[in-house]
Amino acid sequence: MNNAKLVILAAGLASRMKKSVSPAELNQSHLHDARSKTKSMIGLGADNKPFLAYLLDNAIAAGYSDLLLVINSNDTSIRDYFKEYYNGLTIEYAYQMVREGLEKPAGTADALLQGLLAVPEWKGSTFTVCNSDNLYSRDVLEILLNINTGSALIDYDRSALEFEKERVEAFAVIRKSDDGYVTEIVEKPDKEEVERIKDSQGRVGVSMNIYRLRYDVILPFLVSAPMHPVRKEKDLPVAVSNMATHFPKEVMAIPRSEHVPDLTSKSDIAQVHRYLS
């Protein structure tokens, strides 16, 4: 079974990016891309490549051979640019369709569910899944590809993330057992929760939404993931957390201390552009 599989979730509408304030340092090319393109297709770096291309380059260097891109049914830019192959990477596409009764895609758990159902030949395999608006390092992608446990996530040291304090404090924290398995992923943690999960060195581990999962194990938890009552979305961290609760030795937390470039709002663009240049 070929497990060198990667799923990238790229079906979001980039509503926060489009609604965010434009900083003065943003040039006209980046401003145009931010207003008109999905986040992962904003041209950045010295070569003005789409942000997603840098992530794919890291995935190829890490050893992945098969990619499933879950995209919005109204977005043709990703498929037009990458086609079915990219530097030796075989690419398949799945569309996240808007569920009946909703006005927008139903979140990351639903995106992964629709993606996996589009590739039934992946049953029995293990795969890595991540966001399209974060630039995960080659090392992290390679670690997950070669992990020998059932499932895993990268447990990022919160203090190594180079974001403003308020933003970092909103990231989901990871509660773990003494032997390093995930017991819960806590979204929007309060200060008391953060204090509870600190280790003896004061380290706080957070999730940046990159996981190694088993198709057959995660699938029912994607189906049963609850709908957020306000946002009307099913969140992948919640599905993984529910799986970890049900199977206490399923999800290994892999500690890592490094920054993860992120494109959430227009204020991120110049910083990521400088990083990639």
Brief write-up:
With 277 residues, the chain is an alpha/beta fold. It contains eleven helices and 13 strands. β5 and β6 form a beta hairpin.
Description:
The structure is a single chain. With about 280 residues, the protein is of the alpha/beta class. The protein has a single domain, classed as Spore Coat Polysaccharide Biosynthesis Protein SpsA, Chain A (Alpha-Beta Complex). Helix content is about 35%, strand content about 20%. It has helices at about 15-20, 30-35, 50-60, 75-80, 105-115, 140-145, 165-170, 190-195, 215-225, 235-245, 265-275; strands spanning about 5-10, 45, 50, 65-70, 85, 90-95, 125-130, 150-155, 175, 180-185, 205, 210-215, 250-255. The strands form three sheets. Strands 1, 4, 5, 6, 7, 8, 11, 12 and 13 form a nine-stranded mixed sheet that branches. A hairpin with a 2-residue loop joins strand 5 (about 85) and strand 6. Helix 5 crosses helix 9 (about 215-225), helix 5 packs across helix 10 (about 235-245) and helix 9 (about 215-225) packs across helix 10 (about 235-245). The termini are far apart.
